[in-house]
Design a protein that fits this description.
- By secondary structure, this protein is an alpha/beta fold.
- It has 4 domains: about 190 residues, Rossmann fold (3-Layer(aba) Sandwich), CATH 3.40.50; about 190 residues, Rossmann fold (3-Layer(aba) Sandwich); about 100 residues, Orthogonal Bundle (Arc Repressor Mutant, subunit A); about 80 residues, HRDC domain (DNA polymerase, domain 1, Orthogonal Bundle).
- About 45% of the residues lie in helices and about 15% in strands.
- The protein has 28 helices and 17 strands.
- A 7-stranded parallel β-sheet has the order 3-4-2-5-6-1-7, with helices on both faces. Strands 8-13-12-9-11-10 form a 6-stranded parallel β-sheet.
- Helix 15 packs antiparallel against helix 16 and helix 24 crosses helix 28.
- About 0% of the residues have low confidence.
- It binds adenosine-5'-diphosphate (ADP), magnesium ion and zinc ion.
- Adenosine-5'-diphosphate (ADP) binds next to helix 3.
Length: about 600
């Protein structure tokens, strides 16, 4: 039989999808192959079809028993003899497979990677005629990938033990680094590399900061997708159930799906979804592997995914039929912090760092006002151009940019002055002159940056911090402490200006210039030495005279008379009578100078 005949008669398809024929040909020619094609792109066919045209057995390495069983079932239904050897099977079942292999009646054998290192298994394979090896989900090979599996790393033993047998590696997502790692780790020999375009033009991508639990945003979104199929990804099992119940209470047809459901419940939800009996599945990421429903019109994430790889795969489940589909990502900074903490237990420091970096890249993606499609393309090493009208960044009317170099410098300088040992809230508290216990405990109210950022509210400082993350000027270190990066130095030195979308900040007055700031510091110092003098005279601790906060306010306002003095926080009649005159005098002096 010819390729096209097998395609039609065995698989029931009229034509190849893009890249499939090239992949099939490479395998038939006995060439190594490295294929990167999105989930649902049809990778299985690329090795199943040539397997049928070749003598011998094809050995497929796959990471999950469920995936293997799925494939075997599908092949058997098409009348192809395929089998798996896995730990769930008893001896008898295993013997049956071994017999089938020896007789040559089994065309495809699916095994987990750890099987390859089991004693005697390689020897057994050497007694068979193997036409080629397949490494499915090949990104698991790489520590730079998002689903690293140590056993995949050992798969170089295939080329070592079977130097003449071609190897075909498949994955849905690989950055250029991961691609190079797969190539090297599997010892591929001049493989044909096929990589699909990352850009999915029928997907609209949106990311929004989640407001409280995000339900209002979600309902607004769902209103535009009545009676359509969609997936909503949540982070925890509990959330899937709560959200599904909430949607049901709004007469929206939804069911929860997560790993703890019984197999019967799982297949029921899966089936009802496939047959459009329910519109929406609210799921943890356990849902989706191997689902093949072409009319999914939307995918929502209710919190930040851990990696771009995960995110891209998950949104990729929408619009397989090529029709317009929408994706919505709801996120907060808190998501990043929460997910980061979950990674703290990862043993290998190097791998932990990879995961941290991936999470941060994901967060920056969500925040970014650059074209989302372009960011994805660049991330996966593809060429990217702005989509124009398929993402929120491109759809948004251009927003005025305002300069926040001054604020950025204040923020970075507060990090610097506290030794890069404190988290975002603490830094903001310092800038806003908070009297929180922690600020006092560390004496941070004595810093020159204390209270200099009062004109911005907490939210605005949060936005400024986000922007600095986005620019890679800062990064989260251990215990969420903010760390300065190379970019921060350029900003601090004034070599680099910082801008932000105007709509991200409130409408407030211009902040003081650096010169004014230094001047203000001197003013503060003048008040402080006066306080010291008076405290000594009265034999009381300095803070009993006036608090730092009061001194800061004094140096900012420079009151001209008693009335204005009394408006300052911390100066009442009694205190004014006791110490007021001296301070008023100094204030007038400073004003005149
Ligand atoms: P992947 O492994 O790339 O995620 P699969 O191999 O599971 O994707 O294929 C996804 C779906 O596409 C399957 O249902 C498969 O039957 C279907 N498919 C594959 N190739 C073709 C084709 N040439 N024409 C139509 N459907 C195809
Ligand atoms: Mg697959
Ligand atoms: Zn765009």
């Amino acid at each position: 039989m010819q390729k096209s005949e097998v395609l039609e008669k065995v698989f029931g398809f009229n034509s190849f999808r893009s890249f499939q024929e090239e992949a099939v040909d490479a395998i038939l020619e006995g060439r190594d192959l490295l294929m990167i094609l999105p989930t649902g792109g049809g990778k299985s066919l690329c090795y199943q079809l040539p397997s049928l045209l070749m003598e011998g057995v094809t050995v497929v390495v796959s990471p999950l028993i469920a995936l293997m069983q799925d494939q075997v079932r599908g092949l058997n239904e098409n009348g192809i003899r395929a089998a798996t050897i896995n730990s769930d099977m008893n001896d008898e079942e295993r013997q049956e497979v071994f017999t089938g292999l020896r007789e040559g009646s089994i065309k495809l054998l699916y095994v987990a990677p750890e099987r390859m290192s089991a004693s005697g298994f390689i020897g057994f394979l050497q007694s068979l005629k193997i036409n080629f090896f397949v490494i499915d989900e090949a990104h698991c090979v790489s520590e730079w990938g998002h689903e690293f599996r140590a056993d995949y790393r050992k798969l170089h033993l295939l080329k070592e033990n079977f130097p003449q047998v071609p190897v075909a590696a498949f994955t849905a997502t690989a950055t250029p680094k991961v691609e190079a790692d797969i190539h090297a780790a599997l010892r591929l020999h001049e493989p044909l590399k096929l990589r699909a375009k990352v850009f999915r033009k029928n997907l609209t991508i949106r990311a929004q900061k989640r407001v409280s639990n995000g339900r209002t945003q979600l309902l607004n979104f769902l209103q535009q997708h009545r009676d359509e199929s969609g997936i909503i990804y949540t982070f925890t099992r509990k959330e899937t159930e709560q959200l599904a119940a909430f949607l049901q209470s709004r007469h929206i047809s939804a069911r929860a799906y997560h790993a703890r459901l019984s197999p019967e419940e799982k297949s029921e939800v899966m089936r009802d979804f496939m047959y459009d009996k329910i519109d929406i599945v609210v799921a943890t990421i356990a849902f989706g592997m191997g689902i093949d429903k072409s009319n999914i019109r939307f995918v929502v994430h209710t919190s930040l995914p851990k990696t771009i790889e995960n995110y891209y795969q998950e949104i990729g489940r929408a619009g397989r039929d090529g029709l317009e589909s929408e994706t919505l990502l709801l996120y907060t900074k808190g998501d990043e912090i929460q997910k980061r903490e979950l990674m703290d237990s990862v043993e290998s420091d190097a791998y932990k760092q990879v995961l941290y970096d991936k999470l941060q890249t994901m967060y920056r993606f969500a925040l970014s006002s650059s074209c989302k499609h372009k960011l994805l393309a660049l991330y996966f090493g593809d060429e990217g151009e702005a989509c124009g009208d398929k993402c929120d960044s491109c759809l948004k009317a251009p927003v005025e940019q305002v300069e926040i170099t001054k604020e950025a410098q204040m923020f970075l300088s507060a990090i610097y002055r506290t030794g890069e040992r404190f988290g975002q809230n603490h830094i903001i508290d310092i800038l806003r002159g908070s009297q929180a216990q922690n600020i006092m405990k560390f004496g941070h109210d004595k810093l020159s940056v204390y209270g200099i950022g009062e004109l911005r509210n907490k939210n605005e400082w949060g936005m400024i911090a986000d922007r600095l993350f986005e620019l890679s000027a800062i990064q989260l270190g251990e215990h969420r402490a903010l760390k300065l990066q190379k970019e921060a130095i350029a900003v601090l030195k004034g070599h680099e200006k910082v801008w932000i979308d105007e709509d991200k900040l409130g409408n407030i007055t211009r902040l003081k210039t650096a010169a004014e700031e230094i001047e203000k510091d001197e003013t503060f110092e003048a008040f402080r030495s006066l306080r010291m003098k008076i405290a000594t005279q009265h034999d009381v601790p300095a803070y009993i005279v006036f608090s730092d906060k009061t001194l800061h306010e004094l140096s900012r306002r420079l009151p001209k008379n008693k009335e204005e003095m009394l408006e300052v926080n911390g100066i009442g009649e009694v205190k004014y009578e006791r110490y007021g005159e001296a301070f008023l005098e100094l204030s007038r002096e400073l004003q005149a100078s």
